[in-house]
Amino acid sequence: xxGLRVLGLHGKGTNSEIMKAQVGPLCRAAEIxxxxxxxxxxxxxxxxHNIERFFPGxxxxxxxxAPTSEKLREAQDYLSALLQGRPLGSPDEVPKPxxxxxxxxxxxxSAAFDLYNELSRDLPRAFxxxxxxxxxxALAAGLLLQTSIEHPAEEAPIKxxxxxxxxxxxxxxxxxxxxxxELKGTDAPIRITIPTLHIIGKQDGARQEGHLLASxxxxxxxxxxxFDGGHAPPRKSKDIQEVARAIKRLVCKAQA
Length: 256
What we know:
Elements: E1 6-9, H1 16-29, E2 36-39, E3 43-44, H2 51-54, E4 61-62, H3 69-84, H4 109-120, E5 129-133, H5 135-150, E6 160-164, E7 196-201, H6 207-215, E8 222-227, H7 237-255
Parallel strand pairs: 1-2, 1-5, 5-6, 6-7, 7-8
Antiparallel strand pairs: 3-4
Helix pairs in contact: 1-7, 3-5
């Protein structure tokens, strides 16, 4: 796993340090602990249910609050910037190109990010994969699907994804969760095509959503593991060891 770089995406109402603590035992068992960079979402948020009992006085964050078209696009742009190692900032902080007479060109947010995508397309990947929890899963899965829809000929921005207690992403077009009936391409259904691992708690209230997220992946690319727990990363030693072995298989498959 030399040189492996993984981006950690937390759930709503937590932050990067909380997720680092939550998945620390799992990352150590999978031997990826030193390869994961955890980032916090850009949006302030109320703390997730009961999280204050264990992590009081934190700066709780989210990737987006209400899943409106604008906020979903902004969150995907933010994640795209993280994955490409681009500077982060508000739309007004995105550098603008200049014309020959040095007058500034006014670009829309989407045009500015499209320009960055074009300029950075041939640069080395900043990250090989992601490890996500809850809302972080929806964000990463949404970017992967949106890339397949809008740029079907392009390579996915990452090689693999680890989804912990995930759910289907919201479409920035309809603001509804994606379903398999919607994702019909001209020649074949649109799917997440990179290798993925779906870690689902048997007592998680969103358990069905985790399986529905896996259904949005191309056949043969998704592995699903259920563990004895709720909406939280695995805690029992037996579950941690089983999931760690699956993570190692996933990384080997993605790097083959």
